[in-house]
Every structure is written in structure tokens, then in C-alpha cells.
Amino acid sequence: MSRQPEEQTRGFRPSARRRNRIAVGIALGAVAIGGNVLVYSALDDTTTVVQAVDNIPAGAQVTADMFRAVDVDVDPSVPTVSSEQLPELIGQYARVRIVSGQLVVGLAFQPEPLVDPGKAIVAIEVDADLMPTDVRDRSALQLVVSGTDDVPVTVDARAMEVPVESVSGTGTVSVSVEVDLAQSPVVAAADTVRVVLLPPSPDTAAGDPPTTDGES
Prior knowledge:
Elements: H1 6-10, H2 16-43, E1 47-52, E2 67-72, H3 86-89, E3 93-94, E4 109-110, E5 119-127, E6 140-146, E7 153-159, E8 164-165, E9 172-180, H4 184-188, E10 192-197
């Protein structure tokens, strides 16, 4: 019985160098596959945040049906409100107008109304030289307002924001003040407004308890 040549019975046996190349190729392929898995995993790393489903006017008290939770892929540095924080927004007031579809941020809301009942906010222009330098947000003020023919009248007020330079370039500063609703037309129509900074007093809108008789 004849014997087949030894080369035919051994089969294919790559050289050591070729085996090393095959091993390296397999390793590189595994690395590439692993990298792709990591990339696609990162693409699926979404965060559930709060989105407005209605246009919310500034000053409106928000309700749960104004929002929904959506999954988005955003950078951690982008300010958002997570879905777990949604209950904290309910009942608060929008500080600015929020457009439908916008991802909301916590700074857009505040716990108290923008304007208290019976109050109005009026923007006034005051000569910079006549504006007290220590006026701060919620400072107690007294406005001395006068028109062309009117006798000056005094109006109690609260500063709603730190005065800023007017864009008119006339040496005035602009400040928003909170006054009683009935007196708002007098302040808004005044030709001249002088501001008097009063000592600190209880600010019920900010949560201070009202002063009782006998307290200073």
C-alpha cells in the first residue's frame, strides 16, 4: 500500500512569524470592536430632563401639565432640571417667558410672585447725582414725585433691582420700584423723581414677619 507524501498529511502550518501577525490582527480587531461598543454606549448615555410643553408667560404660576420629561444627550455643564426635580417647580412662578419646547432651568423660577397682589412695578429714571449709593434689592424707599404743575407727593416703595446706568446717556439711572397699585400712575407720570433711602423695615413679600406695635 502506497504512502502519501509527508507534506500532504501534515496540513497547513503557518510559520512562527505568520502566527504572530495573525495574533496581532485578531487583537487589533478585538480592540476596534470594543471601541465601537464604547462609542455606541456613550451615544445611548442620555439624561431625563424637564421640557416646557406650553408657552409660559413671565409671572405665571406653573403647574405640572406645563412640563414633560424627555431623554436628551446633553453635556453635564449644560444647566437643566432633572425629572426628579420636577415636583420642586410646581407652584413656583416663572421669572422670564419660557417658550414651548425649551429645556427649563431652575434659575427661571422663584417661589414668590413677581408682583404681589395690590402692588405694581414701575420703571423710573432718576438723576444719577440724586440716587442714594446704597440702594439694594428690596431696599425700603420713599419717592418724592412731582409733575409740571403738581405739588410734590411722597410714595412708599421698594427697590426691585439694583439701579443700572440708563442707555439714554443722559446721566440718569434706571431702577424698577414696587409701589401700591393705586399710586403707580402717579409715579409713572412723574416728571421728576427723587429717591430717599429709608432704614430697613420688615419686607412681608420677602417673608419677613410684620412688625407689631411696640417693636422697633
